[in-house]
Design a protein that fits this description.
The protein has two domains: 1-67, no CATH class; 71-116, no CATH class. Helices cover 14% and strands 5% of the residues. The chain has one helix at residues 82-99; strands at residues 33-34, 45-46, 56-57. The structure holds zinc ion (ZN).
Amino acid sequence: MVDLPNLVERPPLRCFAFRGAALGAVCGDRAVWMGPPRGALESSFFCDRHRPKDALPIADDAVFRRVTLDVEVRFAAASLIETTARVDALARLEAAVHAAGGRLSVGRVTSIVGRLRAQAGPGQGTADKGKG
Ligand SMILES: [Zn+2]
């Protein structure tokens, strides 16, 4: 048996059914079934639509892979009031991540008030470069 770490959080599991030949082209809908185990690292999960005949309900201790993305997301705030701007941006991002089947963990939130500089000419960059 492979020694695996114990995770304390499991985002909703999603369907492994392939939808095409492209890498990552999977169904991705919420999974409620798991395929028969074929080894410690070969769990597979399925939605109702792609459920194999021999599928079982997902076990509480099923092995899964959790992906964590460290990203930077920028919104133009809906308010110049800092607290309102942050709460709104977090709510929008959380809703989007939830709709995509993930869970959001926020480490740092910053905001800045400024104005867009005049656009640079062709080949001279854009106002999005540099600070802020
Ligand atoms: Zn599916």
